[in-house]
Specification:
The complex is a heterodimer of chains A (158) and B (340). Chain A contains five helices and five strands. Chain A has 158 residues and is of the alpha+beta class. In chain A, α2 crosses α5. The relative contact order of chain A is 0.16. With 340 residues, chain B is of the alpha+beta class. The longest helix of chain B is centred in the N-terminal third of the chain and has 28 residues. In chain B, β5 and β6 form a beta hairpin. Chain B is built from six helices and eleven strands. Chain B folds into two domains: 163 residues, 2-Layer Sandwich (Aldehyde Oxidoreductase, domain 4); 145 residues, Aldehyde oxidase/xanthine dehydrogenase, molybdopterin binding domain (Aldehyde Oxidoreductase, domain 4), CATH 3.30.365. In chain B, strands 1-9-10-11 form a four-stranded mixed beta sheet. The two termini of chain B are 23 Å apart. The chains are: A alpha+beta (158), B alpha+beta (340). Chains A and B meet through α4 and α5 of A and α4 of B.
C-alpha cells in the first residue's frame, strides 16, 4: 500500500506525516507522532478512552480515519495543560479523586472538555450524558461527575 | 406495567488476607545519599492507593516527612516478594512489612546520628520534618540528610531495613474442625433500595446507605474512593456482569466492552457511607483493609431488595431482567413484600 502524506494541526502545532491508507487516527497519533495520551481500550468505539477533539468536537480516534483530519485541528490530552499549570479539569480530577488506575482518564478529560467548551455550566444530567460513552472500571463514576461539576463551577478543590 | 420499590439489607464479616499456604509480604527500606528513603516492594498498585499508603506508613515509622519517601514497586524482578494485591490484604500485609523494614532502618539511622552527635541513640528523637535531635534539647540537632551522608561516606554503614509480615498457614484441627483463617476481620452493612419493573424485569438502583468498619482509615480520602468505586462494582456484579451468557451457547458470550455489560454513569445512585474505625491490634497503625470487601455486601442487599419489591428470590448472579421476568411469571405476577 502506498503512503499518503497527511498534514494537520496537533495541539496547536502543524505536523506532517506519511500514513498507510486505512490507518486510524489513534495509531497515527501514538505510533507516528508519539502522543501516547489517547489510549487504546477496545478499538471499536465501546470504551471512550481514545477520545480526542477534532475542530473542537469529541471523536473516537480509533474509529476515525487518519486521512480524514487533513487540514483540521486535533486536540489531545497532551495539549490540555496550560504551560506548567494543570487545566482546571485536570486539577478538579485530582482534587476529587476521579482517577484510580487512570486508563479511562484521558478519554474522560477530553469528553469533559468537549462538554465545558460548549456548555460552561452543565447540569448533572448533562455531565452524565457527556461521559456516557466512556467506561470507568474503578471509580463508580461519582467522583468523575463531581470533578466535572466542580471544574464547571470554578471550584477547583473538593 | 408497575414499578415496585423494594429495600434489602446485608451484613458481612470479611477476613483480611487469605489462608492458602501462608500469606507473606516483604519490604526493603534504604536511605539514599540525599537523606531520602526508598521503599522497595513488588506489590501492585492498581490505583487503589497502595503506593500512597505504604509511603505514609514508612514516613510515619521513620519519623521523616512523607515527601522524603519514594515507593518503588510493581517489579517482581527487583522488589522483594509479595503475594499480591487481593483479598483486601495490601494495607494490612504490605503495610506491616513496610513498618518492620522502616523500624529497622530507623534503628540504624538513630545509631548513625548518635555517633555524629556523640550521644546515646536512646536519647534521640525525630521531629518528623527531617531532623534528629537530643530529647529536650532541639538545638543539638542533625538533619537526616547529614546523617545519611555521614553513614555512607564516613561511618561506612547502610541505613536500611528488612521487613516481612507472614500470617502462617492455619491448619484445620481434624478433631474439631477449628482453624484461624484470618487474624482480623472487617465488617460492613449495606441497605439497597431498588425499583423493579414487573413488565420488563429491569432493576434500577434508587439509593444505597452503608456503614463500613475497616480498622483505622490511614488515608480517609483513599478509603472513601475505594468504598464508592467498590460499591459500583458490587452493583455491576449483582445486575450486569457475566462472561457466561444467559443463553446456552458460549458463542453468545460477550467478547468486548460493547457486549460485556456494566452500569454506566447514568445507572448509579446516591450512596451515603459511614466509616467506622475499630483499630486492628495487628494492623499497621490499626489498619485492616477496605479493598475487596467493599463490593461484597452490595450483592446480597440487592437480591434481598428485589425480593422485597416483587417477591421473587433470585439466587443466581447476575440478576438480569430475563431472570426477574421469568421468576415473576412463574409465580403468577409480582408479589410485593412488606415494606421494611
Amino acid at each position: 500500500m502506498s503512503k499518503i502524506p497527511l498534514q494537520f494541526r496537533h495541539n496547536g502545532r502543524d505536523v506532517a506525516i506519511f500514513v498507510d491508507g486505512g490507518t486510524n487516527l489513534l495509531v497515527a497519533l501514538r505510533e507516528l507522532i508519539g502522543d501516547m495520551t489517547p489510549k487504546f481500550g477496545c478499538g471499536q468505539g465501546g470504551c471512550g478512552t481514545c477520545g480526542v477533539l477534532i475542530d473542537g468536537e469529541l471523536h473516537l480516534s480509533c474509529l476515525t480515519l487518519a486521512e480524514s483530519v487533513a487540514g483540521r485541528s486535533v486536540e489531545t490530552l497532551d495539549g490540555m495543560k496550560q504551560g506548567p499549570n494543570l487545566h482546571p479539569l485536570q486539577r478538579a480530577f485530582a482534587d476529587n479523586f476521579a482517577a484510580q488506575c487512570g486508563y479511562c482518564t484521558p478519554g474522560m478529560l477530553m469528553a469533559a472538555k468537549a462538554l465545558l467548551d460548549r456548555n460552561p455550566s452543565p447540569s448533572r444530567d448533562e455531565v452524565i450524558e457527556a461521559i456516557s460513552g466512556n467506561i470507568c472500571r474503578c471509580t463508580g463514576y461519582e467522583p468523575i461527575i463531581n470533578a466535572i461539576l466542580a471544574a464547571a463551577g470554578g471550584r477547583v478543590s473538593a | 406495567m408497575t414499578r415496585h420499590r423494594g429495600r434489602g439489607i446485608a451484613s458481612i464479616n470479611y477476613p483480611i488476607g487469605m489462608n492458602l499456604g501462608g500469606d507473606p509480604s516483604q519490604a526493603l527500606v534504604h536511605s539514599n545519599p540525599s537523606g531520602k528513603f526508598t521503599v522497595a516492594l513488588s506489590s501492585i498498585d492498581l490505583g487503589q492507593g497502595m503506593k500512597s499508603v505504604t509511603r505514609q506508613i514508612c514516613a510515619e515509622t521513620l519519623g521523616v516527612p512523607v515527601e522524603d519517601v519514594y515507593v518503588d514497586t510493581a517489579d517482581s524482578d527487583t522488589g522483594p516478594h509479595c503475594m499480591g494485591s487481593f483479598a483486601s490484604r495490601g494495607t494490612h500485609r504490605v503495610g506491616n512489612a513496610v513498618m518492620a523494614a522502616a523500624r529497622e532502618a530507623r534503628g540504624v539511622m538513630m545509631e548513625a546520628a548518635a555517633e555524629e552527635l556523640e550521644v546515646n541513640a536512646a536519647d534521640l528523637e525525630t521531629d518528623g520534618r527531617g531532623n534528629i535531635h537530643v530529647k529536650g534539647a532541639p538545638h543539638r540537632s542533625i538533619s537526616t540528610k547529614d546523617v545519611a551522608i555521614a553513614a555512607q561516606f564516613k561511618q561506612g554503614k547502610t541505613i536500611s531495613g528488612r521487613g516481612i509480615f507472614l500470617v502462617p498457614l492455619s491448619e484445620v484441627n481434624p478433631e474439631t474442625g477449628e482453624m484461624s483463617p484470618a487474624t482480623c476481620y472487617a465488617h460492613a452493612c449495606l441497605v439497597a433500595e431498588v425499583d423493579v419493573d414487573d413488565e420488563t424485569g429491569e432493576v434500577a438502583m434508587v439509593r444505597m446507605d452503608s456503614a463500613y468498619e475497616l480498622g483505622r482509615a490511614l488515608n480517609p480520602r483513599l478509603v472513601e474512593q475505594q468504598l464508592v468505586g467498590g460499591a459500583w462494582m458490587g452493583v455491576s456484579h449483582a445486575l450486569y456482569e457475566t462472561t457466561e451468557p444467559h443463553y446456552p451457547e458460549a458463542v453468545h458470550g460477550p467478547r468486548d466492552f460493547v457486549e460485556y455489560l456494566m452500569p454506566g454513569p447514568g445507572d448509579i445512585c446516591p450512596h451515603d457511607i459511614a466509616v467506622l474505625e475499630r483499630p486492628a491490634p495487628d494492623g499497621p497503625f490499626g489498619a485492616k483493609g477496605p479493598g475487596e470487601m467493599c463490593a461484597n455486601p452490595v450483592l446480597p442487599a440487592i437480591a434481598n431488595a428485589i425480593y422485597n419489591a416483587v417477591g421473587v428470590r433470585i439466587d443466581d448472579l447476575p440478576i438480569t431482567p430475563e431472570k426477574v421476568l421469568r421468576a415473576i411469571k412463574a409465580q403468577g405476577g409480582a408479589r410485593p413484600q412488606a415494606r421494611r
